[in-house]
Amino acid sequence: MANLRAGLIGLGSMGRHHARNLRSIDGVDLVAVADPGGDPHGVAGSLEVLPDVEALIAQGVDYVVVATPTVYHEAIGLALADAGVHALIEKPLAADTGAARRLAEAFASKGLVGATGHIERYNPSLQSLRKRLEAGDLGDLYQITTRRQGPFPARIADVGVVKDLASHDVDLTAWVTQRKFELVAARTMSKAGRQYEDMVSATCQLEGGLMSNHLVNWLTPTKERLTVVTGEKGMFVADTLTADLTFYANGQVATTWDDIAQFRGVSEGDVTRFAISKPEPLRTEHEAFRDAVLGKDADIVTLEQGARVVEVCEAMIQSAKTGQFISVS
């Protein structure tokens, strides 16, 4: 069978990594690239840098990766859907919930494969965590906490920290727990002089009463990427910077010291750091999307899920403005 013909629009800091992976995975040929701003990182190689999505479609592509600024996602995605071209669209899926839903509906109505580029879902530590939670290794889930902090990335210009960074945590939280967000409360701040927020602290409720907390900012001088899930049998800690997953078990040793024994909580048990395979998350994402286009079973972030993430992010922003809990439909 002939290789899939892939196109890429957006040759910026994320586009260059997409180009590298499109050239390295089996069964795919990168045949066309487009960016009206040119090719700042020199990723086109021998390919002509086309001016727009229409020129890209004219090359007869099977699917396209959209790595442009968020504001252009809707127009580009709708053009691809109208042309019958599958698409992997970088996160956030669109600038607002309405645009995200229109994209999801357009691809669904044409029977096309559409996915959102929430790369963190493919981090090896979170992939392993999801399987272990599904197997019941933690028992009843009590709380999930994420911390995603670091310095401001100069590449971001059209969204704030909620839609750019917190969107990762919204998606991974819903995915690893397999529960939807129901209520959102948040506080945001803007300290860097930009029009968008650069810090958010959110407290949320997911299905079944599961509590989640998310601390995200662009104001910390060192990077932190942690997901902590606490449950009946202990706690999992996933560090997505190192792709490490560690389990802290509740202790099973009886406490005979009377003063301590009066505390009826949990005690410290064994600590296990799992040895897991660590492929590049972006490559795993591309391989999953390729398989989906080929009609195989594949774990992709659907456009419907991508739209849901945008909705939760907008609920965080609305909550910060109103000081109220916001219900997510």
From TrEMBL:
Residues 127-236 form the GFO/IDH/MocA-like oxidoreductase domain. It comes from the Bacteria. Transmembrane segments: none annotated. Residues 5-115 form the Gfo/Idh/MocA-like oxidoreductase N-terminal domain. GO terms for molecular function: nucleotide binding. Pfam families: GFO_IDH_MocA, GFO_IDH_MocA_C3. This is Dehydrogenase.
